[in-house]
Amino acid sequence: MNGVTEARLFVAWKENNEYSMAKVESFLLQSPDHYLKFRKPIRNILDWGRSSRLGEIRGVLDVVFGGDGGNREVQWKLRFHKPLSDDSPPDV
After folding, report:
1. CB 27 within 8 A of CB 6
2. What number of other Cβ atoms are within 10 A of residue 5's Cβ?
């Protein structure tokens, strides 16, 4: 396990223009029961991120980038990106 024996789950939120964070629970990953208890909220968070939250983020990107979800800027950067050669300094 690469020496990792503990996982800590935190939650962060914004309320009245202030950010807060609190520890939800700690898990001993060497214990099968703790591992399963840790896995459930992580999977729920990932599912939420792939479904409703991802849709919200795409909607905001559509508003910010004029309906293309930011793809136009990414395509422009890819098209006009100058690859570095061994003897040219990076653009700053």
Report:
1. yes
2. 11
Cα separation, 41 vs 43, whole angstroms = 5
Cα 12 to its chain centre, rounded Å, is 13
Q: How far is CA 22 from the centre of its chain?
A: 18
Domain boundaries, the chain: 6-59
Query: Residue 38 in contact with residue 24, Cβ under 8 Å?
Result: no
Four-CA torsion 59, 63, 68, 70, nearest 10 degrees:
-90
The backbone torsions φ and ψ at residue 86, rounded to the nearest 5 degrees and listed phi first, read: -65, -30
* Token digits of residue 22: 């609190």
Q: Residues 18-77: pLDDT tens digits?
A: 999 999 999 999 999 999 999 999 999 899 888 888 888 888 888 887 776 556 666 656
| Full-model pTM | 0.54
Q: What are phi and psi of 55, to 5 degrees?
A: -65, -40
